[in-house]
Amino acid sequence: MRKIKVGLLLGMVAGIIDVIPMLMQNLTWDANLSAFAMWIVVGFLISTSDLKINSIIKGILTAFLVLLPTAILIGWKEPVSL
After folding, report:
1. How many other CB atoms are there within 10 angstroms of residue 39's CB atom?
2. Global confidence as pTM
3. How is the chain split into domains, by residue range?
4. With bands split at pLDDT 50, 70 and 90, how would you rate the model's confidence at 74?
């Protein structure tokens, strides 16, 4: 349970770090909320996954796999945004 709480907390921290520049760019609230929620989900998935690899690589891999579908959609419409 402690790992899950730490994962969610770190997900919130990553979400805040990601959303700050988005707020400065005056992006829509749905985009901000989507980015923040994605990082909370990533934090949860990292903390509950049982992959037997380095924890940093596990975090990067999980975040990349969660972001990939969204990145494809964003990159298709606005490649500069990536």
Report:
1. 23
2. 0.84
3. 2-81
4. confident
